[in-house]
Amino acid sequence: DGGITQSPKYLFRKEGQNVTLSCEQNLNHDAMYWYRQDPGQGLRLIYYSQIVNDFQKGDIAEGYSVSREKKESFPLTVTSAQKNPTAFYLCASSSALRGHEQYFGPGTRLTVT
Amino acid sequence: DAKTTQPNSMESNEEEPVHLPCNHSTISGTDYIHWYRQLPSQGPEYVIHGLTSNVNNRMASLAIAEDRKSSTLILHRATLRDAAVYYCIRQMDSSYKLIFGSGTRLLVRP
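The joint structure predicted for all components is written out below.
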């Protein structure tokens, strides 16, 4: 089955710790994205990547970092510099940037206390 | 403002058509209009997208106004599984971004 997997589904961390969220896709998509969703809100773009070894900041990149060493993988690190890291994090991919549907993973709910 | 405007919530009866409106009055000629829906604690699911002409797929139809300042997502026969938050999204020509608003929460009554 083709799709996007995110792990873990739930993640708990202490304040001041960095944490890495996993995102893997086997759809052979070139573009991958990370979004953040807060309760009752729409999604906001953190980072996106069009090709391997290249990525761009979205609207709320501060306190986050990414890497794209393989086409299939786009991990997101939430650093201790992120002021309000508790949120629902969603990874997505698409075959191209414009005019193409994005396929979303099931999400990771991160709670930082 | 690049965001779209949608009603906060709508209700429908099962097996009846649903028309979900969206206003995007600042849209430019080459911006795409996308619709996604999301169930609680899940990732959004693609529904449909279009540029200028009306579009149909197995899930829904998208009717785009002639001036492109508004569009309507049409679910031809609502089912209980269609209850979700529906996002009307503008994808600007100048960028890759899908700009999400707050969406419309659709309630389907049995």
